[in-house]
Amino acid sequence: MNSIAVKAYAKINLGLDVIQKRPDGYHDIKTIMQTVNLYDTVCIKKTKFQSVTVRSNLNYLPTDQRNLAYKAVLLFRELYPFKDGLNIYLNKRIPVSAGLAGGSADAAATLKGLNQLYKTGLSLEELMAIGARLGADVPFCLLMGTALAEGIGERLKPLPPLPDCHILLVKPDISVSTKYVYENLRLNEIVKHPDIESMLDALKEKNLYRLSALIENIMETVTAREYPVIEKIKEKMKENGALSSVMSGSGPTIYGIFDNQLKAETAYNFFKSSQYGKYVILTKPYNINQ
Prior knowledge:
Elements: E1 3-21, E2 27-47, E3 52-56, H1 68-79, E4 85-91, H2 102-117, H3 124-132, H4 138-143, E5 146-151, E6 155-158, E7 166-171, H5 178-183, H6 196-204, H7 208-214, H8 220-226, H9 229-239, E8 244-247, E9 254-258, H10 261-272, E10 279-283
Parallel strand pairs: 3-4
Antiparallel strand pairs: 1-2, 2-4, 2-5, 5-6, 7-9, 7-10, 8-9
Helix pairs in contact: 1-2, 2-3, 6-7
Keywords: ATP-binding, Isoprene biosynthesis, Kinase, Nucleotide-binding, Transferase
Pathway: Isoprenoid biosynthesis; isopentenyl diphosphate biosynthesis via DXP pathway; isopentenyl diphosphate from 1-deoxy-D-xylulose 5-phosphate: step 3/6
InterPro entries: GHMP_kinase_C_dom, GHMP_kinase_C_sf, GHMP_kinase_N_dom, IspE, Ribosomal_Su5_D2-typ_SF, Ribsml_uS5_D2-typ_fold_subgr
């Protein structure tokens, strides 16, 4: 085998709470992560040269050591040396810097691809341990499905799948720095935190309506304050039939959960014809048994 193509799936956060700032400068979080059926394709091809090259369909995407897929190759080669060079091509569909873990998904897919290409036989748990060295979201992007994430996001517990629904993603034409959001999160001033435990109960009950009513993201206290368009998108999403509308991760992508395809398509058409979203994508949950 000289080449392989691997799908790299995006994620959303079904509720996100930040517990505390740690002595090491990171933050402890508690969140429910969900894979959605939106993916990049990572194509890996062996070459006769020893160099690693990364290319993409997006000309503004970094293709050097700032790119997580590139970092994944270097780390994998350090742990399991091989002499080949590699050409990596990233066919990007997940919006960049959107709170959807596109870069982490690419890194996870790269690790999966290298494991198959070089027949290293690493287990999912071993791949996740390597992924944790690349970024907090990479282990989940390897696990996929529905999971509770704690610590900085690397401690994962698989959960019952999100009930069948339609998910509308709207990313406004703004960029948000995750570092800035964490630095400006005023945990001492926040009285009401997302009720993650009740969300877990709703998932066990397979109750989409109860879950949707509970979903909150504490990061909105920073991002929505800075960018009023986020609240506007949430309002319009609910006006168009969403059971819930919440920001994913540190943003700025907003997602809406719909129990009806017609409502979801109507909302999609509204946002496609509006000025609210640079990217508007209608998708569904992706669970690992699919």
